[in-house]
Specification:
The chain folds into two domains: about 5-100, OB fold (Dihydrolipoamide Acetyltransferase, E2P), CATH 2.40.50; about 125-170 and about 205-445, BirA Bifunctional Protein, domain 2 (2-Layer Sandwich), CATH 3.30.930. The strands form four sheets. It has an eight-stranded mixed beta sheet, sandwiched between helices. A five-stranded mixed barrel has the order 1-2-3-5-4. The protein has a three-stranded antiparallel beta sheet with strand order 7-11-8, with no helix packed on it. A hairpin with a 7-residue loop joins strand 4 and strand 5 (about 85-100). The protein is built from 13 helices and 18 strands. With about 450 residues, the chain is of the alpha+beta class. It binds 4-amino-1,4-dioxobutan-2-aminium adenosine-5'-monophosphate and magnesium ion (MG). 4-amino-1,4-dioxobutan-2-aminium adenosine-5'-monophosphate binds next to strand 13, strand 17, strand 18 and helix 13. Magnesium ion binds near residues 383 and 386.
Length: about 450
């Protein structure tokens, strides 16, 4: 039996046919003769208006129906006299799947996002989170579509990793030892007795394994969860977030930038084309410049410049920063946002960072001081992508690892790619939630992932 969604009923179903709709009640209002029920099933931001005529359905039978209840409604779909909706449903039969009493937390409209974060199990039932998670889905789908259509292989890299040398951030340990009963040899925990016979962690990035794939499959991408045990209690950090990491054989930094820009524009355009209703809602509700900003990103080239040039701009401005800028220090979010939002007024790609503030695997430039790194910076977000051309020369790579204290013996498998048929290659990581933040115009990253993980929070 086909079960038409409310999206289908609102936009496509023939008027003057008998249909059945199922969904959750957003509101019920009415008078002595009729009730109007706004029904939503998550397929669209719009509600189906159900008209309950007490001449056809006993008022007593629907008296208990309030916000949050779940119903199955059968009736005649008719053209709606009301503005803003093509059709409405004249109910002839209502089955109550489940009632919700007055303690239902989403009873009233206008709850704050902070309050709704505490109700993460129910917040899907609000317009805002319905919109956000439909957009999130569309973007995830578009990511796979983009890479599939461009000949990339989706590579599943491990979530549990034996390498803790990637240097992208603090890691969560994975063990089956009970905290107080780990075997100790000579005063240190003996992980050779642990499940994997070694020390293991949750991955911070799929890049190193992605590179192994690229050195045989040519063009690969990963799209999976990554984990960072940092005490970053900010609106842009999560302890568990999703990352997309393309890695491409024979690409240099220029190709890498072109890929990043094309990819981001494709995704923004996909959302504008496929999530119109949801974006219009978010635009109206939270940020009236949202759609304009998305269109602006599509219409303009990203500004490309080196880290060194950026430092000169930041030093020359009269703008007051909390943190001082100096060549060789990492840029703070306030610096990134100044460049994007005030100086250039568009997305920026910074390249060629000092080697000491970037990871060991980035290709060393001939100046011996900078590496072929790139960060893509977005308005309102700061860094949305981090990537680089990789150091493909064995000797240079080993020298960098030694200098940075990265154990070459542990990463023997990574070094093998440089020993056997090495090739220039490049890649980057896009933080999925930062992308969803940008596209939805939400301002806190905890509101764009269904169940956010951050310090002191993993309750559901
Ligand atoms: O710049 P990052 O650390 O780069 C890497 O992990 C590389 N291995 C990527 C690569 O070259 N394949 O992280 C990449 C992106 C950042 O630009 C940011 O968008 C996002 O991941 N990100 C986070 N998003 C949410 N919460 C966090 N704690 C994040 N840390 C990084
Ligand atoms: Mg980074």
């Amino acid at each position: 039996m086909s079960r038409p969604s409310i999206l289908h009923l609102l936009n496509q179903a023939e008027p003057n046919t008998i249909v059945t709709a199922r969904g959750w009640v957003r509101t019920r209002r009415g008078n002595k003769a009729v009730s109007f029920i706004a029904l939503n099933d998550g397929s669209t931001i719009h509600n189906l208006q159900v008209v309950v005529d007490y001449a056809k359905i006993n008022e007593e039978d629907i008296k208990a129906i309030g916000t949050g209840a779940c119903l199955k409604v059968t009736g005649l779909l008719v053209e709606s006299p009301a503005a803003g909706q093509r059709v409405e449903l004249q109910a002839t039969e209502i089955e109550i799947y489940g009632l919700a009493d007055e303690t239902f937390p989403m009873q009233k409209k206008g709850h704050t996002l902070e309050f709704l974060r505490e109700q993460a199990h129910l917040r899907f039932r609000t317009n805002t989170f319905g919109a956000v998670f439909r957009v999130r889905h569309a973007l995830a789908f578009a990511i796979h579509k983009y890479y599939n259509d461009n000949g990339y292989i989706y590579l599943h890299t491990p979530i549990i990793t034996g390498s803790d040398a990637e240097g992208a951030g603090a890691m969560f340990r994975v063990t089956t030892f009970e905290p107080n009963a780990a075997p100790v040899t000579d005063g240190v925990v003996d992980f050779s007795q642990d499940f994997f016979g070694r020390s293991t962690h949750l991955t911070v990035s799929g890049q190193l394994e992605g590179e192994l794939g690229a050195m045989a499959l040519g063009k690969v991408y990963t799209f999976g969860p990554t984990f960072r045990a940092e005490q970053s209690n900010t609106s842009r950090h999560l302890a568990e977030f999703w990352m997309i990491e393309p890695e491409v054989a024979f690409n240099d930094l220029e190709d890498n930038m072109n890929l990043a820009e094309d990819f981001l524009k494709y995704l923004v355009n996909y959302a504008l084309e496929h999530c119109k209703d949801d974006l219009e809602f978010l635009n109206k509700q939270y940020d009236t410049t949202l759609i304009e900003r998305l269109q602006f990103v599509l219409a303009n080239d990203f500004q490309r410049l080196t880290y060194t040039e950026a430092i000169e701009i930041l030093k020359a401005t009269k703008h007051k920063f909390e943190f001082a800028v100096d060549w060789s220090t990492d840029l703070q979010s306030e610096h990134e946002r100044y460049l994007v939002e005030q100086h250039f007024g568009r997305p920026v790609i910074l390249t060629d960072y000092p080697k000491d503030i970037k990871a060991f695997y980035m290709r060393l430039n001939d100046d011996g001081k900078t590496v072929r790194a790139m960060d893509v910076l977005f308005p309102g977000i700061g860094e949305i992508i981090g990537g680089s051309q990789r150091e493909e020369r064995y000797d240079q790579l080993v020298a960098r690892m030694d200098a940075m204290g990265v154990p070459t013996d542990e990463l023997w498998w990574y070094l093998d790619t440089r020993k056997f048929g090495t090739a220039p290659h490049a890649g980057f990581g896009l933080g999925f939630e930062r992308l969803v933040l940008f596209v939805t115009g939400m301002t806190n990253i905890r509101d764009v992932i269904p169940f956010p993980r951050f310090p002191q929070n993993a309750s559901f």
